[in-house]
């Protein structure tokens, strides 16, 4: 009980500071009378989402093409965001997109690249219509990821969800996205931003580095690989003079020009092929990234990936925030906030995800300027007043 009071008290202070230091950038919001959009899914199940508010650029944003002209994804003024899109994590993806738009200073200059599985239960066509009905003004494109590209390279993981071929799509962004897209922010579907994504976009990646991500050098790096890996005299020297640190691949700024030039897609595949033969790691798509880029990542402030909020890969227990400021909350791990909320066994931090949730099976809508009942209750518990979201 004492630990719980401490965590909630600290959390309240942190988010009060965040609220005071990061006022909302949104200038306009539109709510339509018919605010719920239904799309026929699979097996007769409907996906029901409220239409998101329409967020407009601030006064200091660059001008973009008018809606009648359309906006090319090759426009140099755009911020490019890549995410996967599938039936299992659809609700999380919608919340993530909503959070990006809500806190962006120039939301109309964000272009989303959604990667959908070829044989997902909800077809790419259904997912495209659903995104368009939920975010009518969103700049986006849906790409089909051929699962046979990677399925024969995937080895069993500690958690079956990590074996989903779509988890490996991030390794193929250099080929999936058009050559005119030279830089992209990759985001997982189980996160929300509470800060302006343009700040993350402006992170500088030095000439000799390909990706930028928050690094966690205090983590035990050796645990991400098996004894067979570390006992092999050749494999154990793969990092050479590099000093590798753990980083989470759910939030990355990627220089796609350098990615393509370095043929890093093939480098990752080579490690996956070796894994199939010798079992050198237990997790899914993360270790190959660590092997290719560990010790050569442009370190980004930890505020951009407060990860692990979903607990570990087995129990999915509740976690508290890491010390420091917060710009992005990430429910990596087994526990997902929408699942725990629906099952009425949420962790305290899950209530911070809920205001971005657009899934409304009961067709109820949260009105603008009104706190959700669960978030309001949690705010009372931690002693927080005001409207953060």
Tell me about this structure:
The protein is built from eleven helices and 13 strands. It is of the alpha/beta class. It has a seven-stranded mixed sheet. Strands 1-2 form a two-stranded antiparallel sheet. Strand 4 (110-117), helix 3 (124-134) and strand 5 form a beta-alpha-beta unit. Helix 8 (264-278) packs across helix 9 (286-293). The two termini are 28 Å apart. Residues 1-11, 13-34, 41-45 and 364-389 have low confidence and may be disordered.
Task: Record the SSE blueprint.
Elements: H1 2-21, E1 36-40, E2 46-50, E3 79-85, H2 90-103, E4 110-117, H3 124-134, E5 139-145, H4 173-176, E6 183-187, E7 191-193, H5 197-201, E8 211-213, E9 215-216, H6 227-231, E10 246-247, E11 251-255, H7 256-261, H8 264-278, H9 286-293, E12 298-299, E13 328-330, H10 337-342, H11 373-382
Parallel strand pairs: 3-4, 3-6, 4-5, 8-12
Antiparallel strand pairs: 1-2, 6-11, 7-13, 8-11, 9-10
Keywords:
389 residues, alpha/beta, 7-stranded mixed beta sheet, two-stranded antiparallel sheet
